[in-house]
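Example (one chain per record):
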Amino acid sequence: MTTEPPRLAHLAILVRRLEDAEAVLRISTGLAVERRQDVASEGVRVGFVPVGSGAIELVQPAGAGGPLGRFLDERGEAVHHVALAVADVIEAMSRAREAGLRLLDSSPRVGADGTRVAFIHPRSAHGLLVELVERRSEP
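Predicted structure:
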């Protein structure tokens, strides 16, 4: 069993338009997007802005509708989830289940950069959507 504690991987912000959000970060803080990526399996475009050892992930739904489109319609642009880097996502999911947490995923799915990810339901995490991220290789 892995004993390495999770660390912050990224803070995800749901946005209507990546380019607008990138401009605000660049102008207000000097931070810049390091890389962009389409994640077809999730129906999003993402932009990663490095901050210390973690990142801000700007998430733009690729189309209208779906859960992310509904989130935008109901709440507007806002923090969507916090991602924690874990050494083994299967093990982290197992620990979460054993602790009585509800997971949105029964098995890991593929995230940006080929990561393996799973989500803890906000009702199990004080209203916060938590993503568990296992990085399989550096981008």
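Caption: The first helix runs from residue 18 to 29.
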